[in-house]
Amino acid sequence: MLDKHQHKHAVRDFDGVIEIRSNPVPRYYAWLFYGLVIWGVLFMAYYLLSGWSSEGEFAEKMSAHQERGAAQVPASAPLVDAQELRAEAAKLYGRHCAACHGEAGGGGIGPALNAQEYQYGRERAKVIESIAQGRPGGMPAYANQFSATQIEALADYLLSL
Ligand code: HEC
Q1: Nearest 10 degrees: CA dihedral of 152, 154, 160, 161?
Q2: Higher confidence at residue 150 or residue 16?
Q3: Is the CB of 142 under 6 A from ligand 1?
Q4: Distance of CA 103 to the CA centre of its chain
Q5: Counting Cβ atoms within 10 Å, is residue 47 exposed (0-12), middle (13-18) or buried (19+)?
Q6: Is the beta carbon of 99 within 6 A of some atom in ligand 1?
Q7: How far is CA 11 from CA 6, 7, 19, in A?
Q8: Which listed residue, 1, 18, 109, 136, has the most CB atoms within 10 A of its CB?
Q9: Which atom of ligand 1 is nearest to the CA of 93?
Q10: Which atom of ligand 1 is the closest one to the Cα of 136?
Q11: Residue 151 pLDDT grade (very low, low, confident, very high; cuts 50, 70, 90)
């Protein structure tokens, strides 16, 4: 058993463990140490000098992600199915308009709406105006009762009769 008084290089005696400074570090340990130092320098050099940045990497991944998202949902996709709108317009017409304009626009108290020409114009915008704001000869205004989408759908429905 060594003790610090017997060995001239023994420098510390801690809980009976005697450290002898003259013994070299094992070779594999030294290689591991220097290897890690070199690896560390190369690692730092790569991230500091190659122009890499975490913001850049994020932006790259984000734009790739957004491109994929944009490809999946076409921007021009209609929100509501045209057929559904037409069906709703037909229902509204039957409930609110048919009493004056007749089933399928045949006319009655109000003028026929399946005609080729309208008194106030048969352009889509004019028809929308007739429905939304009414007309002086007895046509009520519907802007407060129906949404813009419903009025547009009604106009499209009339123009298809
Ligand atoms: C109370 C009866 C009445 C109801 C209900 C009514 N209308 Fe009319 N509508 C009229 C009359 C009358 C006219 C003609 C007004 C004029 O000549 O100034 C007219 C005119 C129109 C015109 C213009 C036609 C043209 O020749 O330019 C359109 C479009 C129209 N109505 C659509 C509708 C729609 C759609 C509805 C249901 C939401 C509706 N109307 C409900 C009586 C009615």
Answers
A1: -160
A2: 150
A3: yes
A4: 44
A5: exposed
A6: yes
A7: 11, 9, 6
A8: 18
A9: 37
A10: 18
A11: very high
Structure-block tokens of residue 74: 């076409």
Rounded Cα distance between 3 and 105, Å, is 116
Long-range contacts of 98-106, Cβ-Cβ distance < 8 Å, separation of 24 or more: 100/138, 104/161, 105/158, 105/161
Of ligand 1's atoms, which has the minimum distance to the CA of residue 118?
Answer: 26
The residue written with tokens 């509501």 in the block is 80
Percent of the chain's residues with pLDDT above 70? 86
Please report the pLDDT score of residue 73 as a whole number: 65
Residue with tokens 């108290």: 109
The pLDDT tens digits of the residues spanning 27-76 come to 999 999 999 999 999 999 988 888 888 899 999 999 999 888 777 766 56
Q: Is the CB of 151 under 6 A from ligand 1?
A: no
* The pLDDT value given to residue 10: 56
**AA identity, residue 77:** A
